[in-house]
Amino acid sequence: MREIDGGICAVPGVRACGIKRGRYGVAMIACSGYAAGVFTRNRVRAAPIEVTIDHLRRSGGRTEGIIANSGSANAYTGVRGIRDAERMAGIMAGILGCSPEMISVASTGVIGRYLDLDLISSLAKEVVPSLRTSPDASSDAARAIMTTDTRVKEIAVEHEGFHMGGICKGAGMIEPDMATMLAFIYTDADVGPGLYPFLKEAVDVSFNMLTVDGDTSTNDTVLLTSTRMVECDPDSFKEAMEYVCVSLARMIARDGEGATKAMEVEVTGAASSEDARRAAKSIARSNLVKAALYGEDPNWGRIVCAAGRSGAEFDPTKISLSISSSIGSVLLVDRGIIVDGVLEEAKKVMSSDEIFIHIDLGAGAGSARSFGCDLSHEYVNINAKYTT
Q1: 345: domain range?
Q2: Same domain, 241 and 288
Q3: Which of 39, 237, 239, 244 is the most buried (most CB within 10 A)?
Q4: Which residues are listed under the site Involved in the stabilization of negative charge on the oxyanion by the formation of the oxyanion hole (predicted)?
């Protein structure tokens, strides 16, 4: 696996661009291919998701492009929201000269506010002349869909002769079953018509193991598009999909709203893979663990507590727990026995901006990892005044 420059534009056949005006932006991605999507499980599902699902069904998975906006989520907007999302697709379809059902739509921003279609149309017209294949075009598209994000999130790889690139946005309202996140992934690999199983499996070990604040968004969308230009071994494709999705999930964790530290939790020795997932998500989700992370406080009892309430089956007397970072690694609990005299060393380890937590439950061979961040004062500041 070799990382390369260019984001989604590292994939031949992908043109992109984006523009941002204050809190509002429009990104456009043009590429002929076949697409599959994974979407939020929130019962309140945004209009662009309903429209995109319908379009993918009507087109048989064929796609010509994506149009996405930031500033308004177009969620909980009723019949008008559906109509507005269809009009967004029509804007892109008119530009590319294709039927609207060949266009996917995505939105992110404030829930319960209608789209400003005049503004979106105006921004789209500005974007069109800049649709291009250069690496900076991918960055422009990623920047256009940022809300509380503080950095562009993109990656591209070359693997076994094919390319895969992705961009995403996401910083808050992040919880397993995806996040307030949009992710657009492109590849020239041909693994046949069955893209969805590969996407779903990659999402399950990446975005669905990601949490910032425990809230599941109305707009979560991950779209995978393949131009089918390069024959590909399914195992190689699976490997690249997981690599790209996990890399993007880590970027979101590092950029969590107000975050000062990223956290990765690895659970091993679980009775089953599902138990490992439960424990890993419970630890990464715990506000007490997250607050301790922010304060660089090696209060490891909170980690054990979070594992214990996860529903995973294990014997507490068999747990081993360690934390590590670029500074070093510290064993805190060894098969149920507290390790004395290591808290000062643990505090030094926690001064790094990326912390790894490893807990062995001693109950079997199940394993999983989750991704998260600390909980800072700034998270409250951002979300206390988000719409004002």
Answers
A1: 262-384
A2: no
A3: 244
A4: 108-109
> Which among 254, 279, 296 is the end of a domain?
254
* pLDDT tens-place string over residues 140-160: 999 999 988 888 999 999 999
Q: Are 222 and 198 in contact (CB under 8 A)?
A: no
Residue 347 sits in a domain of what CATH number? 3.10.20.340
Note whether 94 and 184 are same-domain residues: yes
Q: Does one domain contain both 200 and 100?
A: yes
Q: Are residues 43 and 129 in the same domain?
A: yes
pTM: 0.90
Per the annotation, binding residues are 147, 169, 180, 257, 383, 388
pLDDT classification of 174: cutoffs 50, 70, 90: very low
* Number of domains into which the chain is organized: 2
180 is catalytic: yes
Whether residue 293 is found in the same domain as residue 224? no
Asked if residue 268 lies in contact with residue 190, where contact means CB atoms within 8 angstroms, the answer is: no
| Residues 175 and 266 placed together within one structural domain of the fold | no
Q: Give the CA distances from residue 180 to residues 73, 104, 176, 237, 271, in Å, rounded to whole numbers and listed in that order.
A: 10, 17, 10, 26, 31
Give the active site residue among 63, 148, 180, 187: 180
Nearest to 363 by CA among 233, 224, 267, 285: 267
Question: Are residues 236 and 147 located together in one domain of the fold?
Answer: yes
53-86 residue pLDDT tens: 999 999 999 999 999 999 999 999 999 999 999 9
Can you say which residues are annotated as belonging to the binding site for substrate? 147, 169, 180, 257, 383, 388
